[in-house]
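Lecture 7 notes: from sequence to structure.
We start with the chain below.
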Amino acid sequence: MEYLEVNRANWNARVPVHVGSDFYDVTGFVAGRSRLRPFEREEVGDVSGRRLAHLQCHFGLDTLSWARLGAEVTGLDFSDAAIEQAAAIAAKCGVPAAFVTADVYDAVEALGAATFDIVYTGFGALVWLPDLARWAETVAALLKPGGFLYLAEFHPFADIMDDATGTTVAYDYFNHGPHVWEEPHTYTGGEILDHQTSVQFQHGIGDVVTAVSGAGLRVEFLHEHDHTLFQRYPTLVADEGEYRFPEGSPKIPLMYSLRASAGGAGPAGSAGGMTSR
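Predicted structure tokens for the same chain:
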């Protein structure tokens, strides 16, 4: 199966559903709401005047959230429908931003060999990529010396637990796929999709760190988080827009964030050394 064209058709079908969904709340975003999570803003730091590339940006709400904080942003996604919506939302918000349609592996050429202070990749991106080493090499080529990658992702450990409670191992952590899914609806609900097939790939934490370090980037930190952005399991409890296991119950990592710097002097305010929490 040609994963790229299958997934492109699937995501082009998702775009109008997502734009109209309560999950993304485009109306609230245009009115000024940010899509970034507090820990992302804290871990990335001040972006004022810094060039930021957002790979796999979907229709650009996270990208534009960084722009509202002062970054000079460029968003890239393989879905032409998503990029069209991103440009329209940017214009509606009056936020300067550039958006480019391209596969992430073609990002260096598509962005004209430009380099950036920050390369950002957000939630739900890596499962669409078969080759993490190639992705990390692309990131490294986009970074200025002293710039950094910031990745915020759903934790792969959460995907091996049972769907009912999230407390029992039910799936193979090392089964990288490809995994072919037939799903009539996207994760925001809404109308039935015209293209329902998607192809995904599972990557462990070790795969991510190995790819990043293998591309010559220095890992500054890897933070694991005990909450997520949606009700991944029925047992999770909503807590001010986050979802956690109930108080007193065992917890597993549900999200993680990683920052890694390019060669040269480390970025100002970097954590220094690899840490975990």
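Points to note: Residues 3-19 form the longest helix (17 residues). The helical segments are 3-19, 26-30, 38-44, 61-68, 80-93, 107-110, 132-142, 205-214.
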